[in-house]
Amino acid sequence: MNKMQTFHLILVLLCSVFVLGHGFSRNLPILSFDEGYSHLFGDDNLMVLKDGKSVHLSLDERTGSGFVSQDLYLHGFFSASIKLPADYTAGVVVAFYMSNGDIFEKNHDEIDFEFLGNIRGKEWRIQTNIYGNGSTKVGREERYGLWFDPTDDFHQYSILWTHAHIIFYVDDVPIREIKRTESMGGDYPSKPMTLYATIWDASEWATNGGKYKVNYKYAPYIAEFSNFVLHGCTADPIELTSLKCDDASNANAIPKGITSSQRAKMESFRKKHMQYSYCYDKIRYKTPPSECVVNSKEAERLKKFDPVTFGGGRGHHHGKRHRRAVAI
Length: 328
Fold this sequence. Notes:
This protein is α+β, with helices and mostly antiparallel strands and about 325 residues long. Helix content is about 15%, strand content about 30%. The chain contains 5 helices and 16 strands. The strands form 2 sheets. An 8-stranded antiparallel beta sheet has the order 1-4-13-6-7-8-9-16. Strands 2, 3, 5, 10, 11, 12, 14 and 15 form an 8-stranded antiparallel beta sheet that branches. It starts with a helix and ends in a 17-residue tail after the last helix. Its EC number is 2.4.1.207.
C-alpha cells in the first residue's frame, strides 16, 4: 500500500463523517468569487460583476472561458446558481464539474454537470457523469430534460460527494445518486479535486452527435453564475496529505443523504425527464456495468424513447465520448 492509499484510508472516514454529520445547504456561506475561485482561461470573456459574487462566462469566435477553485477538496458540498444563454445554443456546452486531471494525468477523477445547448425551439439538456482513477472507457453518463427553462432565471446546481455516495441536485431536488460499491473499485472518485466552471464550443459532439454546430451569429453566448458554495475538506496541493475541514456554523448545513420525500421527487424526476442512462445502453454495454441496478419499467420507458440504443437493435450510434479540455 502506497503513501497516498494509506492517507486516504486514515482520513476518508473523517471527511465522510464531516460531510454526513450536517444537514442542508441553504445555511452554508455564500462566497464571493475572489474568496473561492480564480480566472482559468478566456481573458476578458470572464467578467466578475461589481458585487463580486456574480460572474459572466462568455463564448465567442475567439475563445470560451472558465474559472477554477483555489483549493483542492476531498469530499464536500459544492454548488452554484447558473443561468444559461438563450435562443440558438447548438454546440454550446456549459460545465460545472470537479476534476484532478491537472495533477493525475493518467488516472484522474471527475464528477460532472454538463449543460448541452440546442437548436432554437429545443430545450437545454443536462448530462451527469463520473470517472475514477482514469476510467474514461467506462462512461457513466445520464442525460435529462428539465421541468423549467434554465435560460429564464437562475437555478441552483449542486454536488454532494462523500466516501459512500455522490448525489447531483437541481434546486435541492436530487436527480441522481451514485452509491459506491465494492465492484466499482477505483472507478469511484477518491482523490482530491478542484472545482471548475467553463463555457466552450463542443460542435463536434454536443447537439445530435455533432449535426448542429455553434453559430457565432448568435454570439456572445453568456452563462451567468452566482451563489457560490465551496464547503468541504481542503487538501494540500503539493503533499495531498493534510486536510482542513470547514466548520459550518449551522449544524444542518450539509445534506445527510436523500430523505424519503426527496427520493420520491427524484424518482418522479427520473421517470419524467431522464432521456439516457448508460445502464440501459445495449450498444455500448452488452452487460451493464456492475454497479447498475436495472429497473424493468425504466428500461421499457427508455426503449420507447430510443429503441436502437436501449433495445439493442441495429442503427447508427454515436459512440464517441468527449474528453473535456480545460482550455480550448
